[in-house]
Design brief:
about 140 residues, ph1033 like fold, 6-stranded mixed β-sheet, alpha+beta, about 35% strand, 5hmC_binding, globular
Length: about 140
């Protein structure tokens, strides 16, 4: 199993939207490094969902429920991919960006090193620390 983090502006698509819909295609990623992460996701992988821009906090965990496939929102023949995500667990306490920055165990986390990247891999330890901070 691999671990990931995806970012979304809550006004555009929130974790509550994912819970309400029960499943979604994670589409619209147009960064090559983020696309490479999406392409490595496999069913069963767990994904932290981070609300960017306004809230700046991890609010829940999603599960990859479908393998990478062509992004239906992209021009045909382009290399962009999407994966199917389903809600797995809302965190009892959102984990703020400030809390992540303050935790010495998370100083190498991609969220801090490449803050503009919308999809990134996590180590199992990073995933576990954020999960623990949210409980």
């Amino acid at each position: 199993m691999n671990f990931w983090l995806v970012k979304s502006e809550p006004a555009a698509y929130s974790y509550a939207d994912l819970e309400r819909e029960g499943r979604t295609d994670w589409t619209g990623v147009r960064n090559h490094q983020a696309r490479a992460c999406l392409a490595r996701m496999q069913p069963g992988d767990l994904v932290l969902v981070y609300h960017s821009v306004t809230d700046k906090e991890v609010v829940g965990v999603a599960r990859v429920v479908g393998p990478p496939a062509p992004d239906r929102t992209a021009e045909p023949g382009t290399p962009w991919v999407a994966v199917d995500l389903a809600p797995h667990q809302r965190l009892p306490r959102p984990v703020s960006l400030a809390a992540i920055k303050a935790d010495a165990r998370l100083q190498q986390m991609g969220l801090l090193r490449q803050s503009r990247l919308s999809v990134m891999s996590l180590t199992p330890e990073e995933f576990d620390v954020v999960l623990a901070l949210g409980h």
